């Protein structure tokens, strides 16, 4: 099936808005085994829109159009869709009532301009939008089925999942459901993960399991997509594969599905009634900033301390100053122990970094020393990272949070990761 | 002039990579008064690439193609360009030597696969890439001039600025230069800024000045673009306008051009040999994290402290605990004074936030109290912000850094901003 995505709107065309809707749609389709063949971006301009609709309608089997369903004069999707399909716009009484209820629930009066959102091309199939006033719809133009979606990301996401993907799967001759399972890992690159998971697709002998990766430094996402006749069957097929992925990627898995590393760390601390102190240098507060705003962090993150000056680091945790001390794992352990003691936290994480000298460049690196102190002990590791100031900073924050996760889960913290320099 | 952008590559088409190159190109062209009419995205597939090249060549006057110039087998731009233009690929000796030098300078041997990058369509005009091995080139396909650019962002950016935009301006019959001046402000929305700058374009009577905005919460960017026969003339035209924009937007301007708010704050502190302590609660370290990684911060950012627990905040700055104290500007001043005293910093910034209760929602807000202590005094302000947890957090961090900037520049810190709830 030849699928296209057609994004509309001056904001996207001029680059004022980065087009994340396009990548979201394409990824989501890819996750269920549908691939996009062509993308088009045009502005809020009648002539160009019509040309784009007709071209896509002549090429594709299915087209997802994003944007242009709003109440303002520059929202033209319904009008041009009707023109391209050679039908009239007709007033949809049902959707108009839905909009009125939408405003009533919010104790507001619906502006007259919203009436426009209930004008749909004759014969269009309505695609429900339970969280907004922009009505999605489907319509044939040329030889393609067009699916019109709102530009507001959360409305698009829901309509895509609930309305459009099932229809596309049915059209592609592959009815049933597609379920996605995601593992987030830190420390292994895509090619290493690929070889660690060699042969995994064969665990579902009917060929309905697909393995994929998405790398976004410093994490790697491993995706399993399975097709089945219903959700129960999908879960049954996935269950043994999930167990095997956990076994093979093992300690490197930091989170699954919607979880995030910082959330996993926070929950592990909260579950045991523990609390945390964090001491940062070049990471500058970015480790604390990932934990502190989370719901529940107010009782767990006891204190974060940041300084680029080691003398201040010592002072902030009540240590005597140590002139000329080198940044070592042992020093990081001393700092972590002191931070734990001065804050009364059950756990303390210290991340000391000795940066290279000179201007930023791709070979610019840093020596990172990470220590974690608990009531029982202090553990530490070191690593050298390269790739410029930002990569070192981001990589050090990730490794530090991951060391904390490993400690909380009883795993070794010094396994070699692919991002460290040998 | 009808301009199109044609992005190639499976990574972009599948959504694995968010297409920031598209928005960069479109914005840059918009900044010099050229507008993009159509965007196309296709994968690394011969048939689709050829179709996309021919379609764009039939529609446009100029097409910027991004990606597909690398050394691997899935990099197809030169091959398909030659096919679409009905010419042969020919070996470019000059570019081959440039690549060899490129590798030699890095003490590496050039892999044989790179030879492919020196194969260009016959008659193509070379577009220099001084920082990579992907050779840009220009070529006529259909009625359009095609400009082929590398996918690596920094290589694309430079080629666009130095090679392509001047050629496009010449082709558009508007020789000369276009100069962009940018002001970054905090605290005024786009519509307020628009009315504050009413009539500003008329300060350049020949109509060559264009005013534009780009809002990215919580900052607003105001852009002045002027066209002139050369850079000197552009600067002469801009000079009085810049003075007037500074006068009208006044205290709200936080930075200009490539500067950032945190950089302006760091420089203002460094210039007077000052140092800084930061105390954060719900902002969680995100204020410190904007300053700490900057070159030079190691001697200025003396200490940052983060806690979601006020008792820990007091302890970390050596204050006696104050049970049941309300979050007020006065309390923030006490904390800032104490932080200054315990760290020995010349300046201390304290940001206390009382968050609303309950689940995150669009009406979720926080009461923000910001104080700055110096040797002479302590100043403070409060504000209520709404919009959900993330908006409150981001807005509070911005307002706090801006209050610090205002203090360092001798400006009032309590001017009303558009993002606070009346």
Please give the structural blueprint.
The structure is a homodimer of 422-residue chains.
Chain A: E1 3-8, H1 10-13, H2 20-31, E2 36-42, H3 46-59, E3 62-66, H4 77-85, E4 89-91, H5 93-105, E5 119-121, E6 125-127, E7 136-141, E8 144-149, H6 153-171, E9 177-186, H7 190-196, E10 209-216, E11 219-228, H8 231-249, E12 253-256, H9 261-271, E13 276-280, H10 286-291, E14 301-306, H11 310-316, H12 329-343, E15 347-355, E16 365-373, E17 378-386, H13 389-408
Parallel strand pairs in A: 1-2, 1-3, 3-8, 13-14, 13-15
Antiparallel strand pairs in A: 4-5, 6-7, 7-8, 9-11, 9-12, 10-11, 15-16, 16-17
Helix pairs in contact in A: 2-6, 3-4, 9-13
The CATH topology of the largest domain in chain A is Molybdenum Cofactor Biosythetic Enzyme, Chain A
Tally the helices of chain A.
Answer: 13
Question: Which descriptor suits the 3D outline of chain A?
Answer: elongated
CATH class of the largest domain in chain A: Alpha Beta
Largest interface (C-beta under 8 Å): A-B, 66 and 67 residues
Largest sheet of chain A: 6 strands, mixed
User: From the structure provided, what is the oligomeric state, counting identical versus distinct chains?
Assistant: homodimer
Order of helices and strands of chain A: EHHEHEHEHEEEEHEHEEHEHEHEHHEEEH
Number of structurally distinct domains of chain A: 3
Order of strands across the biggest sheet of chain A? 2-1-3-8-7-6
Helix % of chain A is 25-40%
Question: Total number of β-strand segments of chain A?
Answer: 17
Q: Supply the CATH superfamily name of the largest domain in chain A.
A: MoaB/Mog-like domain
């Amino acid at each position: 099936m030849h699928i296209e995505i057609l994004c509309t709107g001056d904001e996207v065309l001029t680059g004022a808005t980065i087009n994340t809707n396009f990548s979201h749609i394409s990824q989501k389709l890819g996750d269920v085994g549908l691939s996009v063949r062509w993308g088009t971006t045009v502005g809020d301009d009648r002539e160009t829109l019509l040309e784009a609709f007709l071209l896509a309608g002549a090429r594709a089997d299915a087209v997802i159009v994003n944007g242009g369903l709003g109440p303002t004069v520059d929202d033209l999707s319904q009008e041009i869709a009707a023109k391209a399909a050679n039908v009239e716009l007709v007033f949809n009484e049902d959707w108009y009532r839905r909009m009125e209820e939408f405003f009533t629930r919010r104790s507001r009066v619906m502006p007259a301009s919203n009436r426009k959102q209930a004008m749909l091309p004759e014969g269009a199939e309505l695609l429900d939008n339970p969280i907004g006033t922009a009505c999605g719809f489907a319509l044939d133009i040329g030889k393609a089925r067009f699916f019109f979606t709102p530009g507001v990301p959360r409305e698009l996401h829901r309509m895509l999942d609930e309305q459009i993907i099932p229809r596309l799967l049915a059209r592609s001759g592959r009815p049933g459901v597609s379920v996605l399972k995601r593992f987030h890992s830190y420390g292994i690159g895509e090619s290493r993960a690929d070889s660690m998971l060699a042969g995994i697709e064969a665990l579902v002998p009917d060929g309905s399991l697909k393995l994929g990766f998405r790398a976004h430094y410093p994490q790697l996402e491993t995706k399993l997509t399975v097709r089945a006749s219903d959700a129960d069957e999908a879960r049954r097929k996935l269950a043994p594969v999930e167990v095997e992925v956990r076994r093979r990627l093992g300690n490197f898995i930091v989170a699954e599905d919607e979880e995030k590393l910082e959330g996993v760390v926070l929950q592990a601390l909260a579950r045991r009634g523990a609390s945390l102190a964090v001491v940062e240098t070049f990471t500058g507060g970015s480790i604390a900033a990932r934990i502190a705003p989370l719901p529940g962090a107010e009782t767990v993150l006891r204190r974060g301390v940041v300084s680029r000056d080691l003398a201040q680091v010592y002072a902030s945790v009540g240590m005597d100053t140590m002139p000329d001390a080198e940044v070592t794992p042992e020093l990081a352990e001393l700092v972590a122990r002191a931070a734990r003691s001065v804050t009364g936290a059950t756990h303390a994480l210290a991340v000391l970094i000795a940066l290279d000298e000179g201007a930023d460049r791709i070979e610019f690196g840093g020596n990172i020393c990470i220590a974690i102190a608990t009531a029982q002990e202090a553990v530490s590791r070191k690593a050298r990272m390269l790739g410029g100031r930002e990569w070192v900073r981001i990589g050090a924050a990730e490794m530090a949070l991951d060391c904390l996760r490993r400690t909380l889960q009883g795993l070794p913290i010094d396994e070699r990761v692919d991002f460290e320099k040998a």
